[in-house]
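Schema walk-through. Below, the input block comes first and the output block second. Nothing else is stored per chain. Lengths vary across the set, and this one has 135 residues.
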Amino acid sequence: MMNKLTIGEVASQAGVHVETLRYYERRGIVDKPPRSGANYRLYPSDTIQRVRFVKRAQELGFSLTEIADLLSLRMNPEASRADVKTRAEAKLTDIEAKIQTLQRMKKALRKITATCDGTGSTTDCPILNALEGIS
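--- output ---
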């Protein structure tokens, strides 16, 4: 049983919840481990590194589908760094577009918020009116 870890041990060492690990299994991000005679999942120790990889990639904005793609590149000896870089650059472009969208949203919200002095009833609230398209 050397080098085999329970689901709780993997989750604890990887910094995730047990349910997260089960979800990763269902999504195919983490291989389903063999079971012990007592029907416990027994993970290889490298599962911790894989889960940490997934969490770091999620922190950078990659979806689980994109992470699965990155993991398949990691396992493919035919894949190149260019393959990985292309995906990272695509994510960067996606993030930049989201930032621009958020900046436009911020500007519009700041503009309509400035029209309201915060007093009175909501009957003629300039913010609500703006959201309804009423000038």
